[in-house]
Amino acid sequence: MEKNKDLGRLLRYAGGYKALTYLSWVLSAISAILALLPFICIWLIIRDVLASEYGMIARYGAYAVALAIVSMLVYIGALMCSHIAAFRVAANMRKEMLSHVISLPLGVEDRFGSGKMRKIINDSSAATETYLAHQLPDRAAAIATPIGLIAMLLWFDWRLGLLSLLPVALGFLIMMRMTGERMQERMKQYQDALADMSNQAVEYVRGIPVVKTFGQTIYSFRLFKDSIDRYEKWVIEYTKELMRPMIIYTGAINSSFAFISAGAFMLASGGITQEIILNVLFYVIITPVISITLTKIMFKSEEAMIVHDAIMRVDTIMNEKPQSDAHNGLVPSDSSVKLDHVTFSYDGRKDAVHDVSIDIPSGYLVAFVGPSGGGKTTLASLIARFFDPQEGTIRIGGLDIRDIPKERLMQHVSFVFQDSHLIKGTIKDNVKLAKPDASDDEVLAALTKAECMDIIEKLPDGIDTVLGSGGIHLSGGETQRIAIARTILKNSPVIILDEATAFADPDNEVKVQRAFSSMLDGRTVIMIAHRLSSITNADRIYVLSDGEIRENGTFNELLEKNGLFSQMWNDYQSSVEWKVGKEAM
């Protein structure tokens, strides 16, 4: 039933090419039947040789070759049809997944991880492509072949035919046991074990520089080795579990010769005739096709399980609820931001933000500070509508952000991330992401305000210098300044800065801070900061801990309260004054 559901879902993506999928099955089945006909020619050749009649042998041989060629050509036609349909299914599946991803909240990709999401979109659709292009036509052939074989086996000598089918029936029963629901669960475990080992390998390779620096090679390798050990344990247990049924299966499907031999002795008890010799020889030649066909069917069942697992992984993306989009002409009246009893949870169990209410007037500079994990970035992400809160409302310019069309909201709000990313392209291309129709003069003006001209002047092609693979690579602070230039060019009324100086060295930090100053005038700015010295002039500071606002006020007001912020400030001052010393001998 699950297999039929999976196939139905896949064919839904085929559109008008669905008929080609069905045609590929028909052609493949016809090819399989044609491939059996040369065995009839072989039977005729054996008959004439035993009768010492050689006149038709060459013709029968020519017929066998011609039928084999026709079978091959029909099979090629089947594969052409299946590949065309499979490519369309894979393409449409990827398009639908990507269209769905676009409709999801922006934060979903972070939760999945871009690598995992990319793997699901690419690898899962590739698995279905192989299944439709090769496995299903071959399955049609694998089903048609036993039907044709049974007809032939019973036609020439029904007694030998029944004897040769007994081990086939036994093998089929064992195969059904090995490819049942338990095997489906095992396939999921196998894919999970592979994914875990792959993830640990990637993390280990990425961390090699840090590992070597601190001499923790053995310790850091342990997680990777543990994942390998878990995979090894699973494979060994799985192999032992299937060892006995696989031995019985292999023995059964290859025992047809023993049954035929026993049948030959019984048939020859009354005397050996030319007909008995003819049929025994023919059955000895044709019965190995049965074991090959059954093995193909078994492996096709395994491929179906892989596809089922791939579809389940696709569903992890497709089951994510899309974010609603308003279609109206509403425009925020100003750059004020108001949160009214906002609550949000990532997992539905623990609130990352709980009952938060904040009122930020237009043009204010406010800061979110607090211990790590307190909800600062989550709160900022909610304002940018990376997610929608489960409770409460967020308003920008007097409008609920859910009532503002996404495109207009993105024009109204800019987000400078802690770890900004640049696309592979020129500096100009990266800056113009904020305003595709911007002129070179506008791009240069934004770069100038973002303190980027020292970067541009040292590059070989100025703003036309290519970044990324095959081009120039920038430092973290330089990348951040290019991202700020992009934000300046966008010229949005609300700006969110998520620890935007985190990866800047002292020289870059000064330039980044000057760049901030040039874009803050007249805008509402929400700043997430760990370096408390950068927010002393904020109009309002909100201290978050465990998803709730513990304190709020100006810098001086919070110090006078002698609460959490005061403690954080004292700790920060101690860290700034800390120096590396050498103990006197």
How would the blueprint of this fold be written?
Layout (H helix, E strand, L loop, with lengths): L1 H11 L5 H33 L6 H47 L3 H6 L1 H43 L1 H21 L2 H26 L1 H6 L3 H37 L2 H12 L6 H13 L1 H31 L18 E9 L5 E10 L4 E5 L6 H8 L7 E6 L2 E2 L5 H7 E4 L8 E2 H5 L8 H10 L3 H6 L7 E2 L8 H15 L3 E5 L7 H15 L3 E5 L11 E6 L2 E6 L1 H7 L2 H14 L8
Parallel strand pairs: 3-10, 3-11, 6-9, 9-10
Antiparallel strand pairs: 1-2, 1-4, 4-5, 7-8, 11-12
Helix pairs in contact: 2-3, 2-5, 2-11, 3-5, 5-6, 5-12, 6-9, 6-10, 6-12, 7-9, 7-12, 10-11, 16-18, 18-19
Could you explain how this protein is built, in words?
- 64% of the residues lie in helices and 11% in strands.
- It is an alpha/beta fold and 585 residues long.
- The strands form three sheets. It has a six-stranded mixed beta sheet with strand order 6-9-10-3-11-12, with helices on both faces. It has a four-stranded antiparallel beta sheet with strand order 2-1-4-5, covered by helices on one side. A two-stranded antiparallel ribbon has the order 7-8.
- A hairpin with a 5-residue loop joins strand 1 (337-345) and strand 2 (351-360).
- The longest helix is centred in the first third of the chain and has 47 residues, at 57-103.
- It is elongated, with a radius of gyration of 35 Å.
- The relative contact order is 0.08.
- The mean pLDDT is 78.
